[in-house]
Amino acid sequence: MPYEGEFAQYKPLRRLVESERVQKLLGSYKVRTPSDNTNSLQILQPIQIQAGDWIPERLIAIDGSHAEVNIKNGFPGAEASYVTVACVILDVAKMQKLDQQRPVNPKEFKTIEKAESIDCALPGCNVISEGEKSAKDSLRKSIFEVLSAVRMCEDGESLLDTYEALLKYKPTTDQTGQTQKCPYEDCPQKNDYLRGDGQYTCSCELARSLYSTDALRIHERMNPAGTNGAIFGEIMQVWERLWMVHILRTLESKKWLSSLRRLAIILDGQLAVFGQPAWISQAIYQELCRINTVAKRFTEGKDILILGVEKTGTFVEHFENLDRKENGGFGNFPCQSVGLLTDSYIKQNIIFSDSTRPYGDATYFGRKFFYKTKCGARLVVTLPFLAPQHRDLTQAEQSHYPRLADAVGLLDKLVSSRFPNALVPLVSANAEAAIPLRLGNKVLEKLAKELMADNGR
């Protein structure tokens, strides 16, 4: 790494370009050609699908954002993260009515939305809460406290209760047979982590605080001497997906499951959880199966409708390549057609792998498909696993995707003209959650400075 103000020279660049080893390595890489994309399209065999005419009365869209800022507390590299997860409820019936009266007054259009959010500041490197001995312990406590404080209904369960319901599905060992260790590295007994509910104490003589949320293991990746954007991203993705399950469990506890006949939920991103807390994806799968079985008694046998929609990534890029013609334009993939993905197709064309385990086996609680809408928007969508047969990625039939016809019919109606391949609900949710990077950081740094000053009085 150069010193501040030092500029890179051309000598290392020339050395790399002329290196035999580099040339040999780059020359051995497999390169896909446009004809490979044509072959992939023939293998995929897009299916023309009859879109359903089901329209929900309400639609819930969930999206999150996080931004890291420097904290001036006397310690070098001190950092905090502002995390927000927005939940927007859209009145679909009113939206359709307004859509027929174009052009629509933006103020009038805003009346179809109601937004709620989880907003918090979490400690990062060198930020230590009162009563704690390290930044890692401060983060553990903060995660627990945020989940304890958030709930959909005042008299309903908290987000922590929802998490602890999912925790019951977690195996006692990981996939390698290892058990989780106590979060305190200096634990005198070097105990295994004692899983429990709420806040409790380690069984060693120091009897320090443990939390049920320690089972997420997010704190294990904390960098004590640098930025921690990756783990704050993991926290955000867990909260987005927890909030989705929380909504469904609240509807169940309030005996409102019949409302799912008229409700859909859209999540920004895949129906998956990555990183340290990936285990929770399989807990979500099991809980969704349970709730869906109960809900079908009140929805005339209809499955719940949950969609994960990706805006970027390798699947989005691959779909774009499939649709691109040799002259550079688009139109290879027919409108109102779906591409249903098998494990072998994914591994041979999108995420190269020779693993015998199905793609996403430990991280996904749903399966992907491509859909090109009536107006030509390309969408990469995940529908949830709601039964064991939905997980069979060796084949891809319409029956493996719960409510596929209703999902694509809804997507046709929700496409936004504001951005390419965008959906109205996610545009709204992102507007509530997104933190403007430059202006946002200045505002958040100022807020942190004021709060730290108040704390020092």
TrEMBL record:
Boundaries of every NurA domain copy: 58-403
UniProt cross-references to InterPro entries, sorted A to Z: NurA_domain
Entry-linked Pfam families: NurA
Name the record gives this protein: DNA double-strand break repair nuclease NurA
